[in-house]
Amino acid sequence: MNSVDILAIAAHRDDVELTCGGTLIKAVGRGQTAAIVDLTQGEMGTRGSAELRAREASQAAEVLGVSARENAGFPDAGIENTPQTRARFAAMIRRFRPQVVIAPSPRGRHPDHRIASELVRDACFIAGLAKVEPTVPVHRPRKVIHCITYRQDFEKPTFVVDVSAEFERKMEAIRCYASQFDGAIQAGEVYPNGEPLYDIVRHDAAYYGSLIRARYGEPFFTYETMRVEDIAALEVSTF
């Protein structure tokens, strides 16, 4: 497995497309390498099947342009953050050797999303401990960032990525999951308002875009304070 610049990790197939698909498309367009790890196969989902979702995820990965997409095989609706799961997943992170890891939101109504966020962050740290899974060379990612798209419990994101140019391809990737989203009005962390889910995704992206004076955006949260070298170069006008 060749190393990648960015590794996006999510609890379920389709989570990445909904929360940070535009950011991955943008990164790949800049010549960076990106990969996806879905922690579960989505076998407990109400709609579709694990086999169908696997085919849809493969199609979506092609649209996004990522170099690899793997499944960790953790139980759907049963992800746990334990010493065993951390060590197992740390070995997987080491194989990709990412500089940046995109993790789920630290908060979420689906237990898998919330626990996955903790598991990913902890496994990234454990991946740097030589005595854990010693047969795989150590590697600790430089940065972990969290998707907070659709969350209503963060006042402001730490930063927003402008995905205006990438948004229609993001929607193309989301539409690969016809078994999950065609005719749907909600999914995962996407709260319903009576409109088709595809419209809600567009409206939410437009809201996040408006925060940075762009048409569409994807929001992220980091525990670390962002560093600024030149305040005269700060973007997003005050007035």
Key phrases:
single chain; 239 residues; alpha/beta; seven-stranded mixed beta sheet; 7 helices; 37% helix
Write up this protein.
- There is one protein chain.
- By secondary structure, the chain is α/β, with parallel strands linked by helices.
- The protein has a single domain (6-223), classed as LmbE-like (Rossmann fold), CATH 3.40.50.
- Helices cover 37% and strands 15% of the residues.
- The chain is built from seven helices and seven strands, in the order βαβαβαβαββαααβ.
- Strands 3-2-1-4-5-7-6 form a seven-stranded mixed β-sheet, with helices on both faces.
- Helix 1 (15-29) crosses helix 5, helix 2 (50-64) runs antiparallel to helix 5 (167-175) and helix 3 (83-96) crosses helix 4.
- The longest helix is centred in the middle third of the chain and has 16 residues, at 111-126.
- The protein is globular.
- The protein starts with 5 loop residues before the first strand and ends in an 18-residue tail after the last strand.
Helix and strand arrangement:
Elements: E1 6-10, H1 15-29, E2 34-40, H2 50-64, E3 68-74, H3 83-96, E4 100-103, H4 111-126, E5 143-147, E6 159-162, H5 167-175, H6 178-181, H7 197-211, E7 217-221
Parallel strand pairs: 1-2, 1-4, 2-3, 4-5
Antiparallel strand pairs: 5-7, 6-7
Helix pairs in contact: 1-5, 2-5, 3-4
